[in-house]
Amino acid sequence: MGSRLEDQSPGCDIDTAEFKWWRRKNAAALHAIHMSCGSEALSVIMENDITAKKAWDALYTKYRPMVTRLELEEDKSADIPDTKDYVQYARFYKALQIGNWEAAKKFINTHPDALSGGIAFSGKTALHAAVEFGHFKIMKELLEWMSEEAIEIRDNEGYTALAILTSSGTVEMARWVIKKNKKVVTIANNYNLIPVSLAIKYGHIEMASYLYSVTPSEELMPEKGIYDMALDLLDKCPRLAITPDKDDFTLVLGLATLPSAFPSGSKLSFWQQWIYDWIQVKSSSSAHHIQLKIDEDDQRRERDENIIVHSSLLKRLISDIHNFIGIKKIYKMKLVHEQSLELLRIVCEQIETLDAKQMSKSLVYEAIFRAAERGISEFIIESTKANPDLLWRRNNIGGNLFFSAIRFRQAKVFSLVYGLAIKDALASALDSSNNNMLHVAGELAPFTELNRISGAALQMQRELQWFKEVESIVPTLYARGFKH
User: Which portions of this protein are annotated as coiled-coil regions (predicted)?
Assistant: First the structure.
């Protein structure tokens, strides 16, 4: 197209037919370019005196493939490759804009590739356009025609059509998109936000709740770095903490399976623990974003260090020391811990409101035993504060959560029994086979736990220590009845 656009107006009087002809052609071409651009692309060419040719060149310079830019920097004589002629889609784009499905369908019949790629400089597809212009009937028709792969196409800012749809809050149309392609709920934009987090950002709770229910659980876990999103979502809709998704997964169960998300599951050396205790992490009162007193912004940190240290050698040394002792890694760990505890607090507020049937449905009972098996003492403490009856809950073989802690050799959870007024009652409990805690302690520890200790002698010593510790809390009557 660029070769067909004049770079400037002809050198003639503005009242001549030649100039008027050029002005009409320039206006038509510029209009086609404007219709094909998103907000970001429009900002590149928004000048009062820009011609269509200049607009085209500016857009091409910004959006041509990076590899081409690098090649041109290395070889100034390199030929500029042809780009996709988006002007051919101007009529199609206009039909989508005004909601003329018949005209759009006619164009698709003669240009089937219009459904398999971008139709504008912004990288938007026909589905993007239908969503942006609010023509949901056309959107539904396009979904019937488009392939699953085409629905995953992202525009220049990384937004799929579903991602854009989250701003409208139209749940019904989101269902149609996801019915066509379930994977699209996991596709993040250039800012690492998946559709459910965008729905929260836009304040559409119904949309967020639906997307939460269909988003795979692994996309909602701490490792994905979406704690802030989860906290924001739960702040607006706390019941989601105990609401099962399509896979019968709940947040309460998810937290109970992640020891590394809590302080009790992290093993630190003396120096690492000292650094961990020293780093200050706190939640913002206006939002659930975590702010570190240690500055994560490299530019601000460099500026502050320049005030104190004027030697570039010393600054490099400081940076090397930070990396060597792992400060960044430790404060990121503490950040995750603080956010996990905040999520747990919200979860436990909901547990307080549940009856036995609701707790079973929300997988709370399963969660406390998972937490006991994995040694997440924080989970046990907070959940039993929310509902003390959980201390008496029995698993499928009739043991309470301290039976599980002993069986899986989780000392941090087992030690909690010492602070309970009902310690003796819990310690004298029997499971479905009439075994008490000493019977459980007498069983060999799981291989994964034994394997943490090298050497059979040390393993045997550790097992004996466990037995003696459990024996010290089991009432004498029950201890005497134990058969070695």
Answer: none
